[in-house]
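Hi everyone, sorry if this is the wrong subforum. Our group has a chain we'd like a structural model of before ordering constructs, and none of us has done structure prediction before. Sequence below.
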Amino acid sequence: MKKKNFLFIFFLFLILYLIAITLFFFSKKNNLLLNEKKIGVSLYPIYFLAKEIGGEKKKFELIIPVGSDPHHFDLTPEIVNRIQKLDYILYTDLSIDFWVSRIKNINPEIKLVNVTQGVNFIGKDKEKDPHFWFSLKENLKIAENIYKFLEEIDSQNREYYKERYLKLKEKIEELDKFTFNELKNIKNRKFITQHNFLAYFARDYNFEIIGYLEKEEGELTPNEIKNLIFSIKKYSIKSIFGEKFTSNKKAENFAQEYNLKVYYLDSLETGKEDFFSAYRENVKIIKEALENQN
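Answer:
Right subforum, don't worry. Here is the predicted structure as tokens:
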């Protein structure tokens, strides 16, 4: 009888213990979920870097839908609803993120985090070129800023973020070496583009953009077109760089008229393709185009 009572008490204690342990971990998990900060990201290139560093420990929400052109993006009721639930937004403080200035009216509690601190921009003030993601060196700086941000808001996982940041840094540096080696033997390092999106790439790898078919404001003047045609002949230009996923009609018409070939590059900003894969493919296309005019 005593043995049966002992076994009953033992199993009762065991069951209560297991219930207590289960409730403890369930409560802990719920607290973690409640304390989890919701982080939005303004642009795909930043989103890509953030995901690489955050891994499984941190989730990010890309505010601009994949495939959208950030130059012509604006807030919709659906996106506003998503923003109201965010705690942070990682952004650039550039004209391309013009809509971010209105966020405080939507969600006064949200914290805006500029991850481009220390970036060596082309241009000044409001005229800064926003296509910094074509510079792997500037991407390294942004990755560092994102790592420091994650370290600050989630110090418990500091070592995890550090390990992933260092791996990302290594990948970017390898891609930089690949790009340099692929393009180092190109002799004619001058080219033209449909519009100005390769300035950082040209700066970092010693190329010169001698003209564009489109300006930020308005059309080319007859004199500007005349100078562009003169430069094409003078420097034996045989190609124009346009962008995938957008209209290149102007470049195609111009190319047909002056016996040029249009090469289409990924703008790296829509998220339709993996950033690293798209960058490598761009390098191969640029190499092919410019080797034809050596």
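For your construct planning: The first strand starts at residue 39 and ends at 41. The longest helix spans residues 2-35.
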